[in-house]
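Quarterly update from the structural biology core.
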Amino acid sequence: MSDESTGNHLDQVYSSGSIDELADGYDQWAKTYDQDMGAGGYRHPSICLALLARHVDPGAGSILDAGAGTGLIGEWMRIVGYKDLVALDASGGMLEVARGKNVYDELHRGFLGEPLPFADDRFAAVVCAGVFTLGHAGPEGLDELLRIVRNGGSIVLTVKDKLYSEGAFRAHVESLCKDGRCKMIEDTGSYISIPGESSQSTSRAIVLQVL
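Predicted structure, tokenized:
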């Protein structure tokens, strides 16, 4: 698929006005998503995997891939020794692709910002690559992630710089830290998310420890 077509898919999901519209955009993209994003040099999954490996032992317990999509990072987590992996995504089409990779123990349909179908303190960690971005989840999605990760566990996530610096995301993280619900233990600083994308937009990855 051409760079122009990939850009069209990105524009469509970034401009989504509702969860249904977002899910539909990803449903239409699911079959070529891995190929398209790989060709663009998509960096979020590899950066999140590196941070996860730094902060979370493979034997720590169950890990939620929140916004799992086609299971890109799930494949890599399984290769390097993480087990008991759970996938969550708003797109049924993306989850079907992920299901075919046989790396997740459970797959759930859901959206960050809404109540999640998991018990308190269930997970040792959450990894969330490429979800806190334009037209996707807002900062309020962090609250449910904090609920379902046990004390001492980690949340590894990426966030579009534009949202972090100009929107409410940074303020929300600072408020959660001030309230003693978590602390930030790593911030990569800005990097280009998809080198092959014409806009060359930047993001950052952060790691929160749940308190």
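The chain has one domain: 3-210.
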